[in-house]
Amino acid sequence: MALISLIASLFLVSVSLPTSSSICGEIFSQCMIAQSSYYTRISDQTIHTSNSSLYSTILQSSQQNPRWLNSTSKPLLIVTPLKESEIQVAVLCSRKLGLQVRVRSGGHDFEGLSYLCKTPFVLIDLINLRSVEVNVADQTAWVQSGATLGELYYSIAKKSEVLGFPAGFCPTVGIGGHFSGGGLGTLMRKHGLAADNVIDARLIDVNGRILDRRTMGEDLFWAIRGGGGSSFGIILSWKIKLVRVPKIVTVFTVRKTLAEGASKLVHRWQYIADKFHEDLLLRIIIENVGSGKDKKVQVSFSSLFLGGIDRLMPLMDQSFPELGLQAKDCIEMSWIQSVQYFAGFQKDQSPEVLLYPLRKINFKSKSDYVKQPIPEVGLQGIWERFQQDQTVFMTMDPFGGKMNDISEFEIPFPHRKGNLYNIQYIVKWDVNSVEETNKHIHWIRMLYRFMSPYVSRSPRGAYINYKDLDLGSNKQDNTSYLEASAWGTKYFKGNFKRLAQVKSKVDPDNFFRNEQSIPPLPASFRITDV
User: Fold this and answer.
1) Does 201 score more than 80 pLDDT?
2) Is 123 a residue whose pLDDT tops 80?
3) In whole angstroms, what is the distance from residue 335 CA to residue 350 CA?
4) Residue 525: phi, psi to the nearest 5?
5) Is residue 278 packed enough to be buried (19+ CB in 10 Å), middle (13-18) or exposed (0-12)?
């Protein structure tokens, strides 16, 4: 009760901040220290003003896209909490002082929205809140939002050879953003998305309260599993249901150039990849190899099969003989080794490689969903456009299996039955200059426009974890539900309205906001049964 009284008292006095960032940081620091002294002690290592020797190091440490390193949008101060109560106080002081909040777990937000803001803001970096507690007996785990996928996978594998979790490919991605946006991965055809396997969560709401599934209610619990958690509060940790994996799985990658028939293989793949046995995921990665006159388009058919080679080969011979897969192309390994394989590591490397940072490079990404196979003329147009840039990629991840069994309304992620596969477009570049950035972004936008006739429409779908501000963004101070619908329905389709309804209940004043956060739903639009 003392904590509740303290929280309420914070809003009795309105405070106007000075314009100086250093003075503002000091005022915020004093607010946190003063208000926390009643029930917790703020560590000297928790608050970092712009004058702090660690400020720049922490700010850049998990910015995964160097494209944003030169941004002038920097936080007044960074909070690196060691305990949950420090986050509560940071939220309350931010509200009291009229500051916005950004929350960062792994720093992979494609548009940098977890650490950039156009108005004065505080960055809450969850780098110290990354514990993973695996319970083998009931096949569950509690994982804090600051942990990475690699840390989760590593922790599971240390405890069990037959348990895994269906989440993403990149080991440095933060749990907080990944789970709250859905979470595509190699096991999704067998077990669904990461968010489909979340069974509880702990969240700090706009009033500084810590809520779990029971106390937050099913509407809010629904919203944070695929609806983008940063719109509704700060998610501290997640309880997940682990899944059974065989002791032996099989992987393979078959690479083909256009001269070796890649185009016809991609065309054929579109008709069968979503219909394979659910134990089999066969994804496509398209990229340029070589340079200059030797540059050519290469297509990699990369697969995870939940079983041995003896079961895999008959399935491939029956369903996709055109690929010409041979047993010598396949490698049997453990599930954790397959995680390493898809992250670009070798089978015989220690699983600890999943804990290390990866090389960072400037990039821009976009996404699509495909409901009808792209005709060969469309594929030819893709190959021609790949010749116009160098370090460009398209990944195609097939759906079907468990993804077809889950309703589009079960969680906010709506792209289920009827979608053949998801596309991610990526362009990367080394030189972080305005000229280079504009050139490569122009290329990916050009490819995206070309793809319009071949992908989903009304709306043209997109994946919230591949965030794309080209789709639209909220106004700085006045977020309009109707305007936000332009991008919101692309990510969430019919679930966008329900998300806005939940937002209007839990954060009616829109404190937790960014360029693509869920806005509150105006009273005239509200759904009576939510």
Assistant:
1) yes
2) yes
3) 13
4) -100, -5
5) middle
The Cα 185–Cα 447 span in angstroms is 24
Whole-number pLDDT of residue 479: 75
Q: Which residues, at least 6 apart from 260, have a Cβ–Cβ distance to it below 8 Å?
A: none
Q: Considering the chain, what is the average pLDDT of its residues?
A: 91
Tens digits of per-residue pLDDT, 134-143?
Answer: 999 999 999 9
| 523: exposed, middle or buried (Cβ count in 10 Å: 0-12, 13-18, 19+) | exposed
Catalytic residues: 466
Q: Which amino acid is at 492?
A: F
What is the per-residue pLDDT for 1?
42
Collect all residues with Cβ–Cβ distance below 8 Å to 407 and sequence separation of at least 6: 416
Distance from C-alpha of 420 to C-alpha of 267, rounded to nearest angstrom: 12
Q: In this structure, what are the phi and psi dihedrals at residue 49, rounded to the nearest 5 degrees?
A: -80, 170
Ramachandran area for residue 446 (φ above 0: left; ψ -120 to 50: alpha; else beta): alpha
How confident is the model at residue 127, as a pLDDT? 95
What is the dihedral sign for C-alpha 340, 346, 352, 353? negative
| Residue 199 tokens, joined | 């069974």
- Phi/psi for 286 (5° steps) reads -105, 135
Average pLDDT over residues 366-380: 98
Q: Report residue 390's pLDDT band, with 50, 70 and 90 as the boundaries.
A: confident
d(CA 318, CA 350): 36
How far apart (Å, rounded) are the C-alpha atoms in residues 219 and 211?
Answer: 13
pLDDT digits (tens, 9 = 90+) for 216-238: 999 999 999 999 989 999 999 99
Angstrom distance (rounded) from CA 130 to CA 153:
13
Q: Which two tokens stand for residue 395?
A: 């990944």
SS (H, E, C) 256-308: EEHHHCHHHHHHHHHHHHHHCCCCEEEEEEEEEECCHHHCEEEEEEEEEECCC
DSSP structure class, residue 166: -
Helix and strand numbers (H, E) in the chain are: 17, 18
In the predicted model, is pLDDT for residue 374 greater than 90? yes
